[in-house]
Specification:
CATH superfamily of the largest domain: ATPase, nucleotide binding domain
Number of helices: 14
Protein name: NBD/HSP70 family sugar kinase
CATH architecture of the largest domain: 2-Layer Sandwich
Bound molecules: zinc ion
Number of domains: 3
Family: Belongs to the ROK (NagC/XylR) family.
Keywords: Kinase, Transferase
Radius of gyration: 23 Å
Structural class: alpha/beta
GO molecular function: DNA-binding transcription factor activity; kinase activity
Distance between the termini: 20 Å
Helix content: 40-55%
Strand order of the largest sheet: 6-5-4-7-10
Oligomer: single chain
């Protein structure tokens, strides 16, 4: 902490002390001075400001030390709010959270489907305004809106790549800039897998000493990394494209231009395509086989696999095995001890993916003799990306001492 605060701006100091109070539960001014390395006078000044802003509250007295009982300070989660939006092809999910990441309101609407980008953004903006009214939050308490998107980010504003319908339909569209013009609140746009990772960190309350990765599955796969309590963004926020890790040099053509990528072998579209080659299964499941029905077709297969249907178990295990191989390489590369599987792709048969990946890592991880690598399902459910987008707003707005690179 003292190292973080050396040379910090006033805003960074305030946010670091706020973060210390948040992660401590209750704490006294003396504790804060001890733990931050700041003087008592500086702490008093910062605390006074945080109390005036309503970000913390005084909550009784601690044990007497040397006579006088010190006032306990506590984080006030209801003082500010954040909104997270996960934009996806089949559905758009909105969450309103307080500062602790607790969900106050959650709604879903139809996804972007085949909408032109400008039409979709207009609808999202209108739905956002309705949500603020429905959640009954004071607009002045809203610190910002986070938007989780699939796809690539470009230099001229974030661009969305719609991976499970017309491939490049949104690619030249500057989503972030358009939203910034349309929405009267600070906007943070990030890829959905990074959002899911930061959601685990905030809402899942993972301690900042734990480095971990989140694999997010929707149309494809993405990997979000949290190290030292911050997200790793790479050089252009395009980090974690695990979906385009090559697993078979002679494998099928991938839309990215490569061959044998994880996505082309194991994503929902690949599983549905394999199921479609089995006429009996395709009839049994009523597979529609159209691009826009890929996710609902995949959900049917995954649901039957979870219920024990042998052919569907086989298909999901095949997808899970490819993912497990990719996770093995990632684990060996990064020496991870925790991997969380998140997103709508794991909703129905997540347990099978966890089982297959855990077996593979226990059996073959390079560091298996030193420590295990735990694989678990996200507790945040299918709205992990929306919740993560809201968490990212809190993370960016309230803890700028952690965001010096962003
Ligand atoms: Zn690829």
């Amino acid at each position: 902490m003292a190292k973080i605060l050396r040379g910090a701006t006033a805003q960074e100091t305030h946010s670091a002390i706020l973060d210390l109070i948040r992660s401590s539960g209750t704490v006294t001014r003396v504790d804060l001075a001890d733990r931050s390395g700041l003087t008592g006078a500086s702490i008093s000044r910062v605390v006074k400001r945080l109390l005036a802003d309503g970000l913390i509250i005084e909550t009784g007295y601690g044990d007497p030390t040397g006579g006088k009982r010190a006032t306990l300070l506590q984080f006030n989660p209801r003082a500010r709010h954040a909104i997270g939006i996960a934009v996806d092809t089949p559905s758009t999910t909105y969450v309103v959270t307080d500062m602790s990441g607790r969900v106050i309101e959650q709604v879903s609407s139809r996804g972007i489907g085949k909408d032109a980008p400008a039409t979709a953004v207009q609808r999202i903006t209108a739905e956002l305004e309705d949500l603020i009214v429905k959640a009954e939050i004071e607009p002045s308490t809203l610190v910002g809106v986070g938007v989780a998107l699939a796809g690539r980010q470009g230099r001229g504003g974030t661009r969305l790549l719609r991976t499970d319908s017309e491939k490049y339909a949104w690619e030249p569209f500057a989503v972030r800039d358009t939203l910034k013009d349309a929405i009267d609140h600070p906007i943070v746009v990030e890829n959905d897998s990074t959002c899911a990772a930061i959601g685990e960190f905030w809402a899942g309350k993972i301690p900042s000493v734990n480095d971990f990765a989140t694999v997010y599955m929707a149309a494809g796969f993405g990997l979000g990394l949290v190290t030292n309590g911050d997200v790793y963004r790479g050089s252009s926020s395009n980090v974690g494209e695990i979906g385009h890790m090559v697993l078979d040099v002679n494998g099928p053509q991938c839309w990215c231009g490569g061959q044998g990528c994880l996505e082309s072998l194991a994503a929902p579209a690949a599983v549905v395509a394999r199921a479609g080659q089995d006429e009996t299964l395709a009839d049994k499941l009523g597979l529609r086989g159209r691009r826009l029905s890929t996710r609902s077709d995949f959900a049917k297969i995954a649901r039957l696999a979870a219920a024990g249907d042998p052919r569907c178990v086989e298909l999901i295990e095949e997808s899970a095995t490819y993912l497990a191989k990719a996770l093995l390489s990632i684990t060996n590369l990064l020496d991870l001890n925790q991997i969380i599987l998140a997103g709508p792709g794991f909703s129905e048969a997540g347990d099978i993916y966890v089982r297959v990946a855990a077996q593979e890592l226990n059996r073959l991880s390079f560091v298996r003799a030193m420590h295990p690598t735990r694989v678990e399902l996200s507790k945040l459910g299918p709205s992990a990306a929306a919740l993560g987008a809201a968490s990212l707003v809190l993370h960016t707005q309230l803890t700028p001492h952690q965001n010096t690179r962003s």
